[in-house]
Amino acid sequence: MQERVLILGGGVIGLATAFELSRRNYNVTVLEKTTCGGQASGAAAGMLAPFSEIGEDPDDFFKLCLDSLRLYNKWQADVKKISQMNFEYAQSGSLHAVYHDADVLALETRQSWQREWGAEAELISGERLWKMEPLLAKDVKAAMYYPEESHVFAPDYVKALEAACRINGVVIVEQLEQVTVTDWANSITVKAKEGQEFSGDRLIVCSGAWSGELEETFGIRIPVYPIRGQICAYEIPMNQVKHIVYTSQGYLVPKANGTLVNGASEDIAGFKTDVTEKGIARLTNWNKHVFPFLEKETPFHTWAGLRPATQDGFPLIGKIEEAPHVVFATGHYRNGILLSPITAVAIADLLDEKQPYQPLQSCKPERFI
Q: Any idea where the FAD dependent oxidoreductase domain is (predicted)?
């Protein structure tokens, strides 16, 4: 008999985990309060860029991100094949741009340790840099080029994941508004606001920024907090910008639909997802120093999403010791899209009783006292 798995949350982590479990013959049901991908997942810029995002040291979080990047080529092809849907997966490479000599030295230090992890990192400056990205501001001193870094169009990726799950037999129940775990000590029972009950053998918590609501249920600290990320987008001619471009202030990502996504302005606003003039101004005030042509442009679209941040910056991935049939996969902050393949595979391996993926030692759900 197939094991029945209930997944709380239909964001990218919940759907990716459901997809992988469905390929391993589990009976999976996803329970979503609103609509799948309606929060952080669908609002993401879709960057797959661990070298650019993590410049300090190669800790377990960096290893998670790098391993996930290297799963992506096959993973996204599998999702497309099963879902019979296409989505943008652009192996564009990225440029991490800096403006001062001291920052160039910092890039060189970063390059040194990242090369030990297989990064094809190359410091680019002068005419070669503007040949690669002609419209880049002329006061950029240099940029680190990472050819391996990529991006996906997040809304379409999440839709394809959902479709692949449904085709594989995953039951997805949306618009539940509120769900309560009423039994979890031995078996799993979850009750929705309107009275529907769902039962299973395993529970996987993928509730993102709302995971903290389960602290009282499980009797453990779950310090996951919502961080509002505001983003804007410009309409630009195709191929006007060729790479993901990072600076210390944020990022710009060119999409195949002729838009340039600019993010992200972050603040603490509880569970509010409204867009503010101040938040978008934080983006428009600096992006013209990266691409001067943006000074005369106005964003055609602005939006915000809630990113599930944890107290120590590491996600919560793993079993609860007291009840190993309850598993957490949450708190991925702004790396949910990137980390979706590795999280799904790691969770499925845990359910299959395989040797735990080593970086999960730093992600134990019960590590907070």
A: 4-350
Distance CA 25, CA 5 (A): 11
| 143-198 residue pLDDT tens | 999 999 999 999 999 999 999 999 999 999 999 999 999 999 888 999 999 999 99
Beta strands (DSSP E) in 240-320 are 244-247, 250-254, 259-267, 301-310, 316-319
Span 43-49, mean pLDDT? 89
Distance CA 50, CA 184 (A): 36
DSSP state, residue 82: H
Q: Is 56 exposed, middle or buried (0-12, 13-18, 19+ CB in 10 A)?
A: exposed
**8 CB contacts (<8 Å, ≥6 apart)?**
14, 31, 179, 181, 190, 203, 204, 205, 206, 207
Task: Report pTM.
Answer: 0.95
CATH number of 92-148+225-309, picked from 3.30.450.40, 3.40.50.2300, 3.90.110.10, 3.30.9.10: 3.30.9.10
pLDDT of res. 369 = 74
Q: In the chain, where does DSSP find H-type helix?
A: 12-22, 40-43, 50-53, 60-83, 101-115, 126-132, 154-167, 215-218, 277-287, 336-351
The two three-digit tokens of residue 55, written as one number: 């410049």
CATH C-level class of 4-76+154-223+311-363: alpha beta
21 pLDDT tier (thresholds 50, 70, 90):
very high
Rounded Cα gap, residues 335 and 212, in angstroms: 19
Task: Give the domain ranges of the chain.
Answer: 4-76+154-223+311-363, 92-148+225-309
CA-to-CA dists, residue 73 to 45, 147, 261, 298, 369, angstroms: 18, 14, 22, 34, 38
